[in-house]
Design goal:
heterodimer; A: mainly alpha; MetI-like fold; two-stranded antiparallel sheet; 13 helices; 71% helix; 1% strand; B: mainly alpha
């Protein structure tokens, strides 16, 4: 679904040039691409540019003060509470990513190597992902709530006598909910990379005397790492910016970047600060995700 | 391949982890109590009847259907043009163009929604359903493109060349050869982009203004505990409809793949 550039469905053809026929052909090709590029430019590039412009302003009443300033960024980077917020968002997303990938790996492994009706399993695993995101998150609020499913169920069974208050409105609830909501994004890339592994490599290793564990550690795991890294990025990047989950189940201790950005644009009415928070948050996530991919590639090269 | 019972148990436990939380929605939507907790008190279809009589909900449903249909048609059309450009021409800028088009997938929805809201303000347009569609196009076009490029790559392009050699014009070749072969991909793209738009909350939350879509309406209801059972009933219905659509999309995609493989 994502990472189109590296998708084998998009081969990079060598570009033709010099030949007038090829040039006319190229013109047609660009004409076909133009509408999509225009929509993306109008709906993405222009608004992001505007966001960058606003982040260099200062709020003054309902308008902006004249002149340009980096004050918003200085404020965002200098405040202890924002540092805590950014670090907490990254930590929650990192925990979500680790939990989702670790839980999904055996599942994807099962479908790739042991399931007989693979297609049926894949459909079964992706169906919950297509049901309303809002309601999936809400379902966890119902489950973890003070009078929710777990508490009322356990009380009914006589296992507890008072509701457990620690289930909802904390970072843990955010991690559980997001790990559930993003499961499909881990299973599919890992499954694809496992499915690609040449089975004769495993047979060769078995013939040469490797046991199951050594075979897994020396062949299957390293060859599936591209899928694992892909899944990690796919989950880490959007969950850091998630708004619904921390808002519904996070409470004050589980507030994340997106919730604070939203407050600046709605209740607080400080657009330049909101814009600076949004851009700083995106830059931070981009850098961390880039480091993640880079270090994983280094580790893979070192292991080889 | 050896059987591994531990792995099989894990697989079913994982399925339970995915499904059980979601299935609480339909379960409690038939429970005769305003409180979402055990024990279940009795069976009722009251919440569904309340839902059918809720005018605001029906209006939001209509908005979501309209936005979803427009998003699906437009993003599939844009995806179709771009997919043809990507697979049938040797363009230098293909990589850069695809990177740019898929960029929205790497940007948090809140940033997409807020920055589009700023753009509306800057050019003096009100929040509207059209603005929601524009926002949804950003997220849906990359999906449509992925599905359609896979279809374009999946069939033998000699068929198109043969049609051209036999004297058909470019448009007729597209209409009589390419389009029928890509049709399963178009259907899958329409369904996937429709569901994505229908389900999208955050972008619509900022851009819909007074014309709430269904997720925006649901978000507004979540604040009122007494409305919960009705929201659960709505969730159960959305669940059933989404499942039906996804299965349809998968069947279409699969059938299309098989037919081309045998045919070409």
């Amino acid at each position: 679904m994502f990472g189109l550039r590296r998708n084998p469905a998009f081969p990079q053809y060598p570009a033709a040039s010099g030949d007038p026929m090829a040039d006319r052909q190229n013109g047609q090709g660009y004409a076909l691409l133009a509408p999509t590029l225009l929509v993306t430019a109008a709906a993405l590039a222009a608004p992001l540019g505007l966001l960058a412009v606003y982040s260099l302003k200062t709020q003054s009443g309902i308008g902006f003060a004249a002149g340009w300033t980096l004050d918003q960024y200085v404020f965002v980077l200098g405040r202890e509470s924002y540092r805590v917020l950014f670090l907490r968002s990254l930590a929650i997303s990192a925990a979500v990513t680790a939990a989702t990938v670790l839980l999904a790996y055996p599942m994807a492994y099962f479908v790739a190597f042991h399931a007989r009706r693979k297609f049926l399993w894949l459909v079964a695993l992706t169906i919950p992902f297509w049901t309303s995101y809002l309601l999936r998150v809400f379902a966890w609020k119902v489950i973890l709530g003070f009078n929710g499913v777990i508490n009322s169920g356990l009380e009914r069974l006589g296992l507890i006598h008072a509701p457990l208050a620690f289930l909802l409105y904390n970072p843990f609830a955010v991690v559980v909910t997001l790990a559930h909501a993003w499961a499909a994004f881990a299973i599919l890339p890992i499954y694809v990379s496992l499915e690609k592994i040449d089975r004769s490599l495993l047979e060769a290793a078995a013939d040469l005397g490797d046991g199951r564990l050594r075979r897994f550690l020396r062949i299957t795991l390293p060859l599936s790492m591209p899928g694992v890294i892909g899944a990690a990025v796919l989950i880490f990047v959007p969950t850091t910016g998630d708004y619904v989950t921390p808002e519904l189940v996070g409470g004050t201790k589980g507030t994340m970047i997106a919730n604070v950005i939203e407050i600046q644009f709605n209740q607080a009415g400080n657009w330049p600060l909101g814009a600076a928070l949004a851009l700083a948050g995106m830059a931070l996530v981009g850098v961390v995700a880039g480091l993640l991919v880079w270090s994983a590639r280094l580790a893979m090269r070192a292991a080889r | 391949m050896k059987k591994n019972p531990a792995l099989l148990v894990y697989a079913f436990a994982y399925l339970a982890f995915l499904y059980v939380p979601v299935l609480f929605l339909p379960l409690f939507s038939f429970n005769d109590s305003r409180f979402i907790s055990f024990p279940l008190t009795g069976f009722t279809t009251r919440w569904y009847r309340d839902l059918a009589a809720d005018g605001a909900m029906l209006h939001a449903l209509g908005n979501s259907l309209k936005a979803g249909a427009a998003t699906a048609l437009l993003s599939t059309l844009l995806g179709l043009l771009a997919a043809k450009a990507v697979t049938r021409y040797r363009l230098k800028a293909t990589g850069a163009a695809l990177g740019f088009i898929s960029l929205p997938l790497f940007i948090p929805d809140i940033v997409l929604g807020i920055s589009l809201l700023l753009l509306l303000g800057a050019v003096g347009l009100p929040q509207s359903l059209q603005a929601v569609v524009l926002g949804h196009l950003l997220v849906c076009v990359p999906f449509a493109l992925t599905v359609l490029v896979a279809r374009f790559e999946g069939f033998d392009r000699n068929l198109e060349e043969a049609s051209a050699d036999l004297g058909e014009t470019g448009w007729m070749t597209f209409w009589r050869v390419t389009f029928p072969l890509v049709l399963p991909g178009i259907c899958a793209s329409l369904l996937l982009t429709f569901i994505t738009s229908f389900d999208e909350f955050l972008v619509a939350y900022f851009l819909s203004g007074t014309e709430a879509t269904l997720p925006v309406y649901i978000w507004g209801q979540l604040r009122f505990p007494e409305r919960m059972p009705m929201v659960l009933a709505l969730g159960a219905l959305i669940l059933a409809a989404s499942v039906a659509l996804v299965i349809l999309a998968e069947v279409l995609r699969n059938r299309g793949m098989k037919r081309t493989r045998v045919g070409a």
